[in-house]
Structure formats: C-alpha cells, structure tokens
Amino acid sequence: MSQSDTHVVILGAGHAGGTAAALLRQYGHEGPITLVGEEPIPPYQRPPLSKAWLKGEADADSLALKPLEFYAEHNIDFRPNTRAVKLAREAKQVTLSTGDVVTYDFLIIATGARAIKLPVEGAHLDGLLELRTAADAEILKATIGPGKRLAVIGGGYIGLEAAASGRALGAEVVVIEREPRLLARVACEPLSTFFLDYHRRHEVTFELGATVAGFEGENGHVTGVKLADGRVIACDAALIGVGAAPNDEIAKEAGLDTARGIVVDLEARTADRSVFAIGDVAHRPMPIYERMFRMESVPNALEQAKQAASAIVGRAPPPGEVPWQWSDQYDLKLQIAGYAFDVDRILLRGDPASAKFAVFHLKGDRVQSVEAINSPPEFMMGKLLIANRKPVDLDKLADPSISMKEVAA
Amino acid sequence: MAKITYVEHDGTEHAIDVKTGLTVMEGAVKNNIPGIDADCGGACACATCHVYVDGDWLPKTGAKSAMEDSMLDFAENVEPNSRLSCQIKVSDELDGLVVRMPESQH
Q1: CA B28/CA B13 separation, integer angstroms
Q2: What radius of gyration do chain B's Cα atoms show?
Q3: Percent helix, strand and coil across chain A, each rounded to 5?
Q4: Given CA atoms A157, A162, A165, A167 in this order, what sign does their dihedral have?
Q5: What is the CATH number of domain A331-408?
Q6: For B43, which of A26, A66, A328 is closest by C-beta distance?
Q7: Domain segments of chain A as ranges
Q8: What is the reported pTM?
Q9: pLDDT for the residue A2
Q10: CA-CA distance, A84 to A67, in Å (whole number)?
Q11: Which of A319, A335, A405 lies closest to B45 in CB terms?
C-alpha cells in the first residue's frame, strides 16, 4: 500500500487520467492526488460525442465519469483549464500553465492525443471542425441540421459515426477519403464495403481515393473542399477526422523514450520508476501479439489506468486483456476484439446483406481478431478464443448454424 | 430518487440514493462503487456491468433487449436473475432495489 503522504500527480483529465484518480481511491491510496486537465469540465466519456451528444441525447452531466463534487469529496485536487508545461524528473516536479510547481512521488502522464491537422490552403477558415472534446462536439452540433451540408474529411470511425449522426439530424453529408476504401487503416475490405453500402443507403455520398488540396471560403467561413483533381465539394462545415498524434512532448523534452508515444512496460511504467504513461499517449506492450503499439480506445485507457493504479498501491496487476473497441452507426453495433496482426486468412461468418455477420482474422487455426456487426456471440466468443489461443475448426466457424459456444468449446 | 443497495461479491453493501433517469450502472460508477466496471459506458457492448437482481425485483427492472440477452448469454457466471445494469433505468418504482455483483466482470 502506498504511504499516506505519497502524492500522485496525473497530467490529463480524460478517460484515462480520470479513471486512474478514481481507481487509486478505490484501491485504498490515501495520499494526495492532483488531477490536471486542459478542459473546463471534469473527466467525461468521449465516445458519445460523435453519437448521443450530436443527437442531443447526452450532455456534460450525463457523460461525466464522476460528478464534480466527487473530486473534492475524495480529496482529489482537480485543476481544470490547466496543463503541464515542463517536467523536471530529477526534482520530481511539474510546472503548470498557471505558474504553479507541483512535486510528485508518482507521475501519471495521460495527456492523450490530438487531432492531426491538414497542412493545406484555407486550413484557418471558420467552419473547419475536429471532434475530440465536448466543446468540439457542441460546435459541430450547432453547425449541422436540416438544409446544412457537412463534409467529413476522413472515412474512419469518428468520421462515419459523425456522418450517421449528421444524417439523423437531417444534414446532407459527404465523406471524403484519401484511400480507395473506408476504414482502410483499421478494418478489412468486407467491412469497408459493408459500411460504404450501409451509409449510401442512408444517402451519405462518398469521394473515395480523393485528396484534399485545400478549402475555399467566403468572409472567413468555409464554403467548399477543394480536391486535388480540381473539383470543389460545397459544404457549410467540414469535420476533419484524419487521425491523431500523441501529446508526448512533455515526456520527450524530459528525456523519456517516445518512439511512437511514451514507451511503457506492462505496469504502464516508463524507464523512470516514478513516471507512468497511460491511454492514447502510451506505446505499450501487448503480450498476446508479442509486440508493442499505441492504441486509441476507451478499453485501453481503462486497462492502463488499472495497471498504473495497481502498481502504485502495490496491488496485483489486472489479468492480461484482449484489446477491444466498439462503434455505433445507425442501428449497427460493431464490436471488435483483438488486432489483425500476422493474419494469413480471413473468414466470413454470416451474411453481410442481413447486417448481422462477423469477420474472423486467423493465423492458421487461431483467431487473432474478430469484427462483429450486430453479433454479440461472435464478439464474446471471439474474444475468448483470442485470449485462450485454442485452435478452431474453420468449417464450423464458417457455419452460422453452429453456435459459437460449440465452435469455442 | 430511489435507494439502491449494491452488494459486492465479498458481501460489502453500499446503499446509494440514485437519481431517477440514470441507469443502475451509472448510480454505481458515479459513486465509485467497486465491482461494476462498465467499460463501454452503457453502450451494451461489453457485459462488464453484470449484476444479479435480488428477489422479487426482477420483473420491475423491465424486459431485456435482444442485444442484452445475447451479451448475457455469453458472459460468465450468468444466472436467471442476471442483468446488465446499464440497461436498467432507475425509477421511483425501484426504490429499495438490491443488486449483487458477480465475482468478476470478465
């Protein structure tokens, strides 16, 4: 158990940082906790920003991980509108944007990732939006509606979820994607095709294989997206969702290893025993795939918050996890378990035309990952098979009339 | 407001006043009660907010959706009184509800 005067400072009050603070208290840490966040509000869930928030079904209160009073009641010094500007590891001190200097016994860096900006002409115009924070979502919500035309730059999950919400609010939506297919970096071809068809049925239009050359505007406000082939796609607003980069500068300047994010071990600890990094900013080991990578997902943020909090209080580490994520678009629930590393075959179970199917990614006869559309059994059992590495009978797996329980038995 | 008693697997009880309109899961999470992880925040995507509903309360918690039913079918240690607490909306009618937590949410 950590000492009652052990001070834990958490930089970043997102899902990872907020969870780490709450878990430290839940696990019995008695010392002071300081939680430093750039945004004006306490930690909240980000996934609904592209869905329920845009549709007016969620607000800051309902999305808050804990109510504001929780932090004072649990002796957590929550400092909103504040960020760290300098880390001095030898002195174990962090300088904040307010000028305050705080001394830590343990530091948890949970500064997340930021949206990548497009370095093109017109990128300064009003009406060019991103979607990382509640403030971003509020601007987007105020912008889209009946009669408005939203251009979504980037056919990834955030872009597609925003497209679905935009349609639900009556806006016209066009998605512009550089690659020839949607979700090119994160999903397989059958899933890309399925989502393309599904969105088209909801009257979203697409420009695939299209490079954005710049933005056109009038009176400082965007009026269109200029493509490399010279065409201009008219719009009232453009949401840019082309990926994110880790906010790892403070660690880098302090001499920590930041290959592609802050490098940590299985306890979420950096090479400095007093410094942890968790969530989107961390480059972490994933034993089931025998490699390290950086993940941008809520389950990863929660998992690493558990790892760091456990290590700090001297509690047994959480059991090894299978990474997973989800996406909701229209009436579709996509659940993904694992990552498709070292895959030599793809197996389809079910019929995409029924909007209920799963794609299994296999290495020999072992499941590496599964993408399940409206198919909880395939997701749940797929996750189990990824964890236990059991070989599967591929004929049975391909036959939806055989239950997943039997396949996984 | 409805008083809901959350019982951890080791028997520790937490009696909490939960605002009407929240879910039973949100009542636990917002009060930092251990044993309900709710990784997905209520999207019915993860089955880490599994609870057992005590005694006669089960019918009052409403019907399970096909999605919840399907997720529960593959969760661990499922009993006939199992529910995903993110799918139970708190109403005045649930004042006095008791839910128990499974040994683990994985």
Answers
A1: 12
A2: 12
A3: 30, 30, 40
A4: negative
A5: 3.30.390.30
A6: A328
A7: 3-114+245-313, 128-242, 331-408
A8: 0.95
A9: 58
A10: 24
A11: A335
Name the token pair of A354.
């029924």
pLDDT tens-place string over residues B46-101: 999 999 999 899 999 999 998 899 999 988 899 999 999 999 999 999 999 999 99
B30 chain-A contacts, CB cut-off 8 A: 64-67, 70
B46 and A326 within 8 Å at the Cβ level: the answer is yes
Domain A128-242: state its class.
alpha beta
A128-242 and A331-408 in the same fold? no
- From the list A374, A339, A344, A370, the residue with the least C-alpha distance to A356 is A374
Q: Determine the pLDDT at residue A90.
A: 97
Whether the CB of A47 is below 8 Å from some CB of chain B: the reply is yes
Gap between the terminal Cα atoms of chain A: 40
* pLDDT tops 80 at residue B106: no
Amino acid found at A204:
V
CA-to-CA distance for A247 and A111, rounded, in angstroms? 6
pLDDT along chain A (409 residues), means of 10: 84 98 96 98 94 88 93 97 98 98 98 95 95 94 93 95 93 97 91 97 97 97 97 97 96 95 98 98 96 95 97 95 94 95 96 96 97 96 95 97 94
Chain A: residue whose CA lies nearest to B70? A376
CB contact under 8 A, B41 and A328: no
ipTM of the complex, rounded to two decimals? 0.91
A3-114+245-313 sits in which CATH class? alpha beta
Residue from A273, A308, A270, A313 nearest A292 by CA = A270
At residue B104 the predicted structure's pLDDT band, cuts being 50, 70 and 90, is: confident
User: Beta-strand (E) ranges in A40-92?
Assistant: 76-79, 84-88
